[in-house]
Specification:
154 residues; mainly alpha; 79% helix
Length: 154
């Protein structure tokens, strides 16, 4: 979001001030608010099981990412960011637990380590996608493409 926030087309589309405002702060902080709310639902993992929770939350992340990329207004964009952070938090809670449970005992530490490493690899890929879109694309697709790319990993 830090890279998208400085793109002129994004600021123009949502009528944001160039220097930032409280609305800009809400766009960023809503992610943490969604994570805090999502963390309260760890009980769902035991209630519905890891696999079912992962399938449902992955579907909701994809739908939320579509809504984020297509959001016509700033309030809808903020709401979609809340939803995507809420459901991705549930995924981030369920996935490592399931991986460690189903991995053979000899490979559990390696599987858990690879899972945690892939998060940072995804961050690097997202950064380069944003950089490439900013360099080679024009118009609103410049900032919307990285939002669409959120669909790939879930």
């Amino acid at each position: 979001m830090g890279s998208i926030n400085v793109i002129e087309e994004y600021q123009d589309y949502y009528h944001l001030e160039e220097g930032g405002s409280s609305t800009t702060g809400l766009v960023f902080s809503i992610w943490q608010i969604g994570q805090m709310a999502g963390a309260l639902f760890t009980w769902v993992l035991d209630w519905r099981g890891r696999k079912m929770t992962l399938v449902f939350s992955a579907l909701m992340v994809v739908l939320s990412a579509v809504f984020t990329a297509m959001a016509p207004t700033l309030p809808s964009f903020i709401g979609a960011r809340f939803l995507i952070s809420f459901f991705s938090t549930i995924q981030c809670l369920a996935a490592p637990v399931l991986l460690v449970e189903i991995a053979p005992p000899l490979h559990r530490a390696t599987v858990a380590g690879v899972y945690n490493t892939l998060y940072y690899m995804g961050s690097i890929i997202a950064t380069f996608a944003m950089y490439g879109a900013n360099l080679h694309l024009g118009g609103n697709i410049k900032w919307r493409l990285p939002l669409w790319l959120q669909i790939l990993c879930p």
